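Handout, page 2. Input:
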Amino acid sequence: GLGTVTAVTAGTAQVTATIEGKPGIATITVSLVPAASVVVTPATASVVVGGTRALTAVVEDAAGNPLTGRTVTWNSATPTVATVSTGGVVTAVTPGTVDVSASAEGKTGKSTITVTPVPVASVTVTPGTASVPIGQTQALTAVAKDGAGNTLVGRPTTWSTSAATVATVSSV
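Output:
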């Protein structure tokens, strides 16, 4: 008689055919379809310092079909710029660019992450008003803050004046 074996999961099974009380045994080895590629999405992303971004990795066979149940290992090429969790969540650390990769069965895919500084939402100049006698100087301080009101340090400041014939300004 004819029989059909259907592979269900990786492993080894013995299939027995019995005819008139006499068994015949076949050993069937079921193997995993090999991974041909790992696709990471998004392929590029921008994340603000301190922010996070979830990446996904799909292990595919040679025909581009997704393979389920495969172990994926995540890696950040430069953890000082951004780290990545075992689940593919990127955390931005410092401004720069980093490749975050996902590997499975010897195949690797990547996403290029650009970490940007937290944007400046406001600048406060102190003092806000001043009366300065001719020939004298007044020190000014500029403080940048993000949208949550946190002070941002290390931001370059460019000073300018609306009337250079009245008052000039320079960086200290």
